[in-house]
Amino acid sequence: MKMSFGLCSIFLVFWLASIAYASDPSQLQDFCVAVPDAKNAVFVNGKFCKNPNMVVSDDFLFQGLNKAGNTSNNLGSVVTPVNVNQLEGLNTLGVSMARLDFAPNGINPPHTHPRATEAFLLVEGTLYVGFVTSNPADPTTQKNKLFTKYLHPGDVFVFPQGLIHFQFNVGKTNAVAFASFGSQNPGTITVANAVFGSDPKINPDVLAKAFQVEKNIIDYLQAQFCRKGYGGKSFFHCTGMPIKASADKLTREIEKFGYPPVFPVVKDEEIAVPEAKPEDENEGGQNQAGGKFKGLIHFQFNVGKTNAVAFASFGSQNPGTITVANAVFGSDPKINPDVLAKAFQVEKNIIDYLQAQFWSNYN
Ligand SMILES: *[C@@H]1O[C@H](CO)[C@@H](O)[C@H](O)[C@H]1NC(C)=O
C-alpha cells in the first residue's frame, strides 16, 4: 500500500510532537500504577503500569512523612522524597513531593530539578532561600540574577524549573518544610557533587579554565568530595587519584601555597565552561552527532591544536543556558559565602577567592 505524502507528513508531525514535550505528558488513563517487573505490563511514558485489576489502595499510599529525617551529616539537612520511586501510584500523574529537615545551620546546597518547578512550604523554623536566573541576554552588562527571601512558618516560595536554588537554616531551631513538584520524578542535580564530585572526575584543566582559577584550587575542591563525600558518606571517593595520594598532595600544596592556597590570577582566553540547559540539546563533533539529555550539566573543551567548530540544535526556541560557575559564584547579588562554603565543603576564603574571579571585571 502506498502512503500519501500528506499522511506521512501528519505522522512525522505527531512523532516530532511526541518527543518535543518539555514536561511530564498528560496522563493517558485514570491511573497507571508502577510495577517493578516489566513482564505482562504495557509501557507508557514513565514506568510500566500495573494491571488495573490488581491495583489496591496501598498503591496510592505513602506513610511516615510526619517523621523527621536524620540530619546528622556534613550538610545538616536531609530530603525525604515521595516521588514515583517511593509511591508507585504517582506514575504518569505529573506531581510528587518531599519533606525537608534542617538542623540549625543546615543547608540544602545549590541544586536544580531538571524536570520540575518546586513549590516550597515552610512549616517550622526560619530559612534563607534563593535561586539564580539562567544567563542574561547580555552578559557584558548583566549577571545571573539572585532572588532570595527569609521564610517563616506558613510561607510558600517557588523555585522555577531548572534554575539553581538552595535553602539554608538561619534559625536557632530545626526547620521543617514540604516541597511539591510538577513531575512524578523531578530529578536533582547537586551542583557541587556534579561538578567537583563526579566519577570519574572532570579533567581539572577544564574546571580550572571554567572557574577562572588555578588547578590547585580545583584539586582542593575535588578533594573535598573525594575524601569526605556528601551527607556523611565517608567511604565515597573519586577515581583518578587514590584518597591518600590526593590528601598528601593537598598537604604539600598547603605547605607550599598557604591555607587556603593563594595563587597569582591568570586569565584565560578561550573558555569551555560546564553548563546546564533547561531544554533538550543535540550536539555534533566532526561528522558526529552527540545527544545530550535535558537539564544535565555538560561541557566542551578544545583539546586539539587547531580551532574547533561545532553546531548545536536545541529542542526549544529559547533553551536557556546556566553557566554553573557564573550562576553560583558570579550572581548579582552574590550568594552568601557562608552558604557556598557549606555547600562546597570548604573554608569561606576559598569561596571569596572564587567569587572574586567573577566580580573583578565589574567592580
Ligand atoms: C543519624 O545518623 C547518624 C550518622 O549516620 C547515626 O550515627 C545516628 O545513629 C542516626 N540517628 C538516628 C536517630 O537514627
UniProtKB/TrEMBL annotation:
Its main location: secreted. Belongs to the germin family. It holds the Pfam family Cupin_1. Oxalate binds at residues 108, 113, 118. CDD domains: cupin_OxOx. GO terms for molecular function: manganese ion binding. The lineage of its organism: Eukaryota, Viridiplantae, Streptophyta, Embryophyta, Tracheophyta. This is Cupin type-1 domain-containing protein. SUPFAM superfamilies: RmlC-like cupins. It comes from Salvia splendens. Keywords: Apoplast, Disulfide bond, Manganese, Metal-binding, Secreted, Signal. PANTHER family: GERMIN-LIKE PROTEIN SUBFAMILY 3 MEMBER 3 (PTHR31238). It comes from the Eukaryota. The keyword Secreted applies. One of its GO terms (cellular component) is apoplast. It is found in: Secreted, Extracellular space, Apoplast. Mn(2+) binds at residues 111, 113, 118, 165. Residues 1-22 form the signal peptide. Disulfide bonds join 32-49.
